[in-house]
Amino acid sequence: MAEICFCAVAARAVRCVWYVAPGDLSESLNMAEPHMALRALLTQRPCPGRITWIGLREQRAAPMRVVDHAHLVEEEGVLGDYASVRRAGTRQVSLMQAEHLPVIAALCARSAVTPEQLRRNIVVSGINLLALRSRRFRVGDAVLQGVGTCEPCSKMELALGIGGYNAMRGHGGILARVLQGAHIRVGDRVDFESDV
User: Fold this and answer.
1) DSSP character for 119?
2) Tell me, what's the pLDDT at 5?
3) Contact, 58 vs 82, CB < 8 A?
4) What is the per-residue pLDDT across 49-89, written as a single tens digit (0 to 9) for each?
5) C-alpha to C-alpha distance for 17 and 7, rounded to whole angstroms
6) 35 phi/psi in degrees, rounded to 5
7) φ and ψ at 129, to 5 degrees?
């Protein structure tokens, strides 16, 4: 069965066609109740992600130290990271999407941008971090709770040059609390908690 809809994209009508088999997602979405459809859509993802980079800041303005493994401590953050030492609040771990690095570089007119410049703890690829920003998820064997987006700070202007702050807007990743600590390493799976 094909369902057809028309959407406005760049001020043009675009024809979108979905082929849905009986008993597929469309039935579980219950299209008669739009709020239920959105709730079901928010639980879907094409594939899990993977950790591609881990970094620690031993002091506030210290350079990032790149590591291939780290320990996430319950209600503290990344062991040895400045943020976990200074407070045990909601900003315990910062995560960023690897797919955004070339976008940020392009917006800064640079050939490349490195995770060290952006000062996040964990870089992941393969999963949309915004889908995790307000839910429980797993990073390796650790369980985290997304608490919101990680907005850029004025340091991005220094790290990336003029316009660096604006280049990072919308691409800064998310912040999370550590609900269950564990040892993590580059290559570990990142996924919705219920799907692991």
Assistant:
1) T
2) 38
3) yes
4) 999 999 998 888 889 999 999 999 999 999 999 877 655 67
5) 11
6) -65, -30
7) -60, -30
